[in-house]
Amino acid sequence: MDKTVNNKAWFLVLPVLVIVAFSAVIPLMTVVNYAFNDTFGNNEFFWAGFEWFEDTVNSSRMHDALGRQILFSAIILAIEVPLGIFIALNMPKKGFWASFCLVFMALPLLIPFNVVGTIWQIFGRVDIGLLGRALAAIGIDYNYTNDALDAWVTIITMDVWHWTSLVALLAYAGLQSIPQAYYQAARIDQASRWAVFRYIELPKMKGVLLIAILLRFMDSFMIYTEPFVVTGGGPGNSTTFLSIDLVKMAVGQFDLGPAAAFSLMYFLVILLVSWVFYTVMTNLDRENAP
Amino acid sequence: MARITLKNLAHSYLPAPKSEDDFALKEMDHVWDDGGAYALLGSSGCGKTTLLNIISGLLRPSQGRVLFGDRDVTDSPTAERNIAQVFQFPVVYDTMTVRDNLAFPLRNRGMDAAYIAERVQDIARMIGMEDRLDRKAKGLTADAKQKISLGRGMVRQDVNAILFDEPLTVIDPHMKWELRTQLKSLHRQFGHTMIYVTHDQTEALTFADKVVVMYDGRVVQMGTPEELFERPAHTFVGYFIGSPGMNLFPARIEGDRAILDGGEVALGARYAAQGRTQIGIRPEHAVLTSGPGLPVAIRRVEDVGRHRLVRAETAGLPLNIVVPEGMPLGPELTHVSFAPGKISVYADDWRVEGAA
Q1: Which domains are delineated in chain A?
Q2: Which residues of B touch A184 (CB under 8 A)?
Q3: Mean pLDDT throughout A120-140?
C-alpha cells in the first residue's frame, strides 16, 4: 500500500509547540539553569555541576520531608480508597437519591484548595473553631498548632474529607457499568456478598480504581496549599511536606540552587512513579488478552 | 427436579396497575411438566424474559403463585429455588480461570473437591474446552465465554430446571446448531426441565418438545411444533410460525363456507364464528390452479432451492403460495384453491373449531 508522505503536516503542530515552550519548557529550563549554577544576583552565574544535587540527596532535612511525604500519601491512600469503594457500594443506584448523592459528594471537590485549608484551619481552632471547642468540651486535649499528632490527624482528616468523593465517584461509575445479568448470575450461582465484590465488582472497577489511585497519589505527593494554610508546616517541621519545604527553601531562604536541583528531582520522582503506574496498568490489561 | 406450576400468575412493572394494559404479563395458569424441554417463543417485548425471571426468582410476580412440585416458591429467593439460568450475553467471572468459573456454583454450595473436579472435567468435555481449563476467562471470544456460561448452568446435577434466556444470540450460526444439538442430547441424558427463551422459531422448534408461544403478555398457545404448524390457536401463531407465515383473509363465515371479497371458499366443516372473522391458510396448503378457486394475480416468484415461493395477490390482499420444485408455472394458473381440511377459522384472532 502506498502512503502519501507529506511532512508539511508538522507545521500544524508548530503553534502548540510554541505555546508549550513558553508555558512549560522555557520556565523549566531556567530551573535547570539554577540547578547547575550558583548565582549572587546581577545575572552572574558560576558553574556548580552536580553540587546542589549532591547536597540535596545527602540532606537529612530532605530525607525527613520525603519520609513525611511518603507516609502522608500512604495513609491517605489507605483510607480514601477503601472508604471511597465502601461509599460507592452503598450509594443508591438510581432515582432522586442517586442524583442527590452525586451532587452532595461532588461538593468538596469544587471548593478551592486554600478555602478548604481555611475551613479546616478555623474549624479546628481551640479558641473559636467548632471542632476544636467541641473536642475541648468533651475533655479531649486537641491542639493542632502545638501537637504534631493532632496536626497530622487534622491534615489527614481534611484530605479525606476533600478527596474521598473523587474515589467514590470514580468507583461508582465503575459499578454502574456492570450489567444486571452479572448480579443475577451471581445470585443463581449462590455467590456470597464477598464473592460478588471480589469476582464481579472489584474486577470491573479495576480500571477506574487504578486511575483514582494514580490521581490521588500524584495530588497527595504534591500537596501544598491545604497544609500550608492549616499548619504552615508545623508544629516544628512535623507537617513540612516536600513542596512546603521546597517553597521555604526557594522563597524563604532564597537558596535557589538547591531548590532548583530539588524541584527537578521532585518532578522526576513523580514522573517516574506515574510512568511505572501507567506501565503496570497497561500490562495488566494486556496480560490475559488473546 | 420438579414440575413447575404457575397459578393465576400476572406481573406488572408498575406499582399500581389499573387496566390490563399495564400488565407486562397477563393472568395465566400453566403447568410445565417435570423433565420437559420447553421453548418460550415470541417477538421482543412480549413478556418472555419477564416470565423466565419470575420462574427463576429474579422477579416477584405482582399476583399469583409459582409452585415447584408441591412447594410454593413465590417468595423464595433465587438461591433457594435451585435453578440454573443462562443469560443472553455471556456472564463469566473474568479474573477466574475457566476451571474456577465452572466450579464456582459447586464451591459456593460447599460440594467436596473430588466431586467438583470430576464434574468440571465432564462439563469441560461437553463444551469442548478441556484444553483451556487453566486459562483466564478474560480475553476469550464471545462464543467461548457463552459456552462457559452454559457449562456453569449445567454443572449442578440436582437443579430443578435450567432456564436459557436467548443464550445463542452471540454465537456463530454453525456453532449455534452444534450447541443446540448438545443441549438437546443433554436433555435426553439427564432429563432436566429446560426452558429456552428465543425469538427464533427454528431454534424453538428444533430444541423443544413443547413450544410456548407468547404474544402481548399472554401465552397464546402451548403445543408440539406440529400442533403449532397445523392448528395455530391464534392468528399470531399462524403468522409467527412458518416461513413465510400463514395467509390471513378477513371473511364472513356462513356454515361450511367462507365468503371472501374475491369469492367463496369451502371449509370442509361447519363453523359458528362471531365477531371479526378471518380464515387462515398455510402457504404450503394453497395450490395454484387454472380454475376453479379464487382469482389470483402472481406478482413475484422466489426460488428458495427446495421449493419456489409465489408472492401473489387476491382481491387486493397479499397471498404467499409454496410451489413444489418441478411444477411448471404458466399464465394459465389464474386461480388458487385451498385444501379444505387445512383452513383455520379465527374469530377475534382466536381459533374456532369446526363441527363436522
Answers
A1: 1-49 (no CATH), 60-287 (1.10.3720.10)
A2: 53, 56, 58, 78, 85, 87
A3: 88
Asked casually if ipTM beats, i.e. exceeds, 0.85, the reply is no
Cα gap A37→B143, rounded to integer Å: 65
- Determine which of B52, B92, B95 to mutate to test the interface with A (most A C-beta atoms within 10 Å): B95
pLDDT in the model for residue A289: 44
User: Backbone phi, then psi, for A41, in 5-degree steps?
Assistant: 90, -175
How far does the CA of residue A73 sit from the closest CA of chain B (Å)?
29
Residues from chain A contacting residue B109 (CB–CB below 8 Å): 190
Cell of B304: 428458495
Which triple of cell numbers denotes residue B16? 399500581
Q: Nearest Cβ partner of B105 from A181, A189, A200?
A: A189
> Which residues lie across from A45 on neighbouring strands?
A39
Written as one letter, the residue type at A258 is: P
Phi and psi based region of residue A223 (left: phi greater than 0; alpha: psi -120 to 50; beta: remaining): beta
Give the number of other Cβ atoms within 10 Å of residue A194's Cβ.
8
**Cα separation, B267 vs B279, whole angstroms:** 9
- Here the contacts of A83-86 (C-beta below 8 Å, separation 24 or greater) are A83/A160, A83/A164, A83/A167, A83/A168, A84/A164, A84/A165, A84/A166, A84/A167, A84/A168, A84/A170, A84/A171, A84/A212, A85/A167, A85/A168, A85/A171, A85/A205, A85/A209
Q: Cβ–Cβ of B108/A190 closer than 8 Å? A: yes
Whether residue B313 has pLDDT greater than 60: yes
Which chain B residues touch A194 with a CB distance below 8 Å?
none
> Which residues of chain A are within 8 Å of residue B141 when distances are taken between CB atoms?
290
**pLDDT band at B188; cut points 50, 70, 90:** confident
End-to-end CA distance of chain A: 28
pLDDT, tens digit (0-9, with 9 covering 90-100), for A252-290: 887 888 888 888 888 888 889 888 888 887 777 665 444
User: Over the stretch A178-211, which tens digit does the pLDDT of each residue have?
Assistant: 888 888 888 888 888 888 898 889 888 888 888 8
Q: What is the mean pLDDT of residues A237-256?
A: 84
The helix or strand, by DSSP H or E, that contains position B220, with its residue range, turns out to be strand B218-223
Assigned CATH class of B4-240: alpha beta
In the β-sheet with B71-72, what is the strand arrangement from edge to edge? B25-32, B4-11, B63-68, B71-72
3-state SS, residue A276:
helix
Residue type, A245: D
> What single DSSP character describes residue B136?
B
- Calculate mean pLDDT across residues B61-84: 84
Residue of A nearest to B84 (CA): A188
Ramachandran assignment for B80, one of left (phi > 0), alpha (psi -120 to 50 degrees), beta (any other): alpha
Q: Which of B53, B95, B105 sits opposite A199 (nearest CB)?
A: B95
pLDDT at A85 over 90: yes
